[in-house]
Amino acid sequence: MSEEPQDxxxxxxxxxxxxxxxxxxxxxxxxxxxxxxxxxxxxxxKRDDLIGLGGGGxxxxxxxxxxxxxxxxxxxxxxxxxxxxxxxxxxxxxxGARLGMDVVLVLAGAPSEGMTGNIALDGLFGARVVWxxxxxxxxxxxxxxxxxxxxxxxxxRPAVIPFGGSSVLGARGYAAAGTELLVxxxxxxxxxxxxxxxxxxxxxxxTLGAERVLGVHCGAVADPEHTVGxxxxxxxxxxxxxxxxxxxxxxxxxxxxLTEPAMDAITTAARTEGIVLDPVYTGRAxxxxxxxVHDGQVRPGQRTVFVHTGGLPGLFGHGxxxxxxxxxxxxxxxxxxxx
Length: 339
What we know:
4-stranded parallel β-sheet, Rossmann fold, alpha/beta, TrpB-like_PALP, 2 domains
């Protein structure tokens, strides 16, 4: 075991809320490794999907900082935004429940019948949902400001948690996670992670270095390189010295659309390791890793960690993915008869 790496967030955790047990597991994935063209011991999975709060996922690490700071500043209500099936919104609702704070979620789109997946859990955790309609990123942010202003006028003390939880403060959660990962696997060459709002990749880059982090763009932001780079610079307190490793080839028709590479990746992970991915983030991230192996960006014989950022509830809110999964069951079913 090498010397423990420096924790760059140590001494800065006065406002951090305790929302998870750490470290999350790091598990070998030999059958998945061989299936995608790596050697058996090359691929390991960092199981941030197993973070206990609210169904698990990477956003909990960010919320420890952002919600913790809001509570320390006297806020009574957390306000945040996202897509209808936002994992961040679900986990903000869960964090609010844990911390005894009200939560208002401003979601793009409109209510529909059969509101499943993350939306059902939002309600279970006691969050109030405000539907913003079909809006642009800027319009969604404006709706959040309107909601926060209305809450203040009604006597509440709201704190706005940024889209995806991704701010320099929130990214500290994954700067610390990078330290955790290096202690678990000092031989790490490449960590592969989905890129949504950018904070997860930024925190890992801050600790591991840009050369050891491969981000797979999922379509949540218009300019992932600028978004991640801005957060990296904020964490470092100076301009970034190296370029980022970003794959932009897995978005397909758009953020919420199921792509064939993502569906193939979801199926492969399920059938080799019993691990469930979602169609928007982790499915795309594994598809990006598979493409990186095929084009030589990730090579056999090198230690690769796939950061599983969670998102399972979102799968149950994605009709096309569920229909594809049901079709696979129908295609293999055998009718049993006695005698």
